Recover the amino acids of this structure.
């Protein structure tokens, strides 16, 4: 009954400058912050030392909550050439960082008593991205274009494959010391 609406607040600042006729460069900075992202909570979370739940007659008592946050920062740089009647081209580079403390609707934190410990690179974080595109104009109004894209890989999460903290979720990372 007390769910907050998910929201994102974004700011950006940038500039584009024509160096000479038809040739321009641009740079932009983008910052976004997400609030009230969805995740799971276990209302019957076990004691990390004993592994005993507050109500031992029940297992997990899952509720959906929206305590999560996201952070995105990016620098975008672009070079664009629109000179000539035969074709145009554009090359752009993005350096970005995406972080979250939740990952999707069925996200379960490693430790419900320390949810902030899950803040890390998001599963869709791509640090580097390079995109080049070009179009060529041919007679009879025929136009051909192409796009080349190169980007860094996605992060991955290493888990132990066991339930180290006895909360019945197998999402424990190797950095978790067994109590």
């Amino acid at each position: 009954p007390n769910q907050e609406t998910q929201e994102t607040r974004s700011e950006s600042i940038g500039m584009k400058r024509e160096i000479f006729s038809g040739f321009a460069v641009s740079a932009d900075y983008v910052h976004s912050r997400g609030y009230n992202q969805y995740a799971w909570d276990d209302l019957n979370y076990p004691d990390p030392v004993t592994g005993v739940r507050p109500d031992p007659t029940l297992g997990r008592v899952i509720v959906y909550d929206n305590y999560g946050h996201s952070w995105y920062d990016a620098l975008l740089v672009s070079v664009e050439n629109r000179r000539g009647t035969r074709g145009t081209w554009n090359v752009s580079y993005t350096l970005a960082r995406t972080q979250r403390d939740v990952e999707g609707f069925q996200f379960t934190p490693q430790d419900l008593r320390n949810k902030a410990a899950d803040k890390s690179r998001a599963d869709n974080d791509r640090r580097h991205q390079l995109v080049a595109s070009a179009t060529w104009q041919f007679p009879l109004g025929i136009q051909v274009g192409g796009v080349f894209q190169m980007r860094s890989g996605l992060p991955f999460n290493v888990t132990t494959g066991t339930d180290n903290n006895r909360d019945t979720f197998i999402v424990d990372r190797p950095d978790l010391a067994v109590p």
